[in-house]
Amino acid sequence: MIQEFARLARPYFVLLVIVAIGRWLIGTAFAVPYEKGTNYLSIVWLTLFASLFSAMFTRRWLDWRLPRAAGFTMFQALVSQVVILLLTALSYGLGISSYFNEPLAVSGRVAPLGFAAALGFRAVGLVVNTILNGITGALGWALGGLLPVRQR
Asked: C-alpha angle 21/24/28, rounded to 5°?
């Protein structure tokens, strides 16, 4: 099932790479302050919309049931959160100030965070956002009933 999810998520993975690189560059190479640039590219929002739409289409056009569609959206979210966690670790490891280790992005506070604390927050985000995307996928699956039936 994971291989099937990975194959089906390939277009999403391309978008994830584009957004992650863009987010990295906005905060590093272009030095746009976090408060000004964070709204332009968001992995969390990308994942939520992907969860909503992919569950809609997998229901109607692949005949997936709710658990499978929600599982697929949770898979997408898990991959996204792992990317965020790894880029956070990379930012700390290289000593680079990026949107991935920006305290406001990590903890919601302006106070600087140590490496362990930041990864702790990211681990919580991994769990919470994976569950949230499962719920979003369930909503998308429900909306998928509104799509036209696939002609075979």
From this structure: 140
Is 51 within 8 Å of 137 (Cβ atoms)? yes
Task: Label residue 76 left, alpha or beta by phi (over 0 means left) and psi (-120 to 50 means alpha).
Answer: alpha
* Paired tokens of 10: 């390939």
Residue 107, Cα to own-chain centre: how many angstroms? 17
List of residues 6+ apart from 27 with CB closer than 8 A: 34, 37, 97, 98, 99, 100, 102
Q: Give the type of residue at 24.
A: W
- Confirm if 130 and 78 have CB atoms less than 8 A apart: yes
74-109: pLDDT as tens digits: 999 999 999 999 999 999 999 999 999 999 999 999
pTM, two decimal places: 0.94
Alpha-carbon distances of 126 from 17, 39, 139, rounded to whole Å: 18, 20, 20
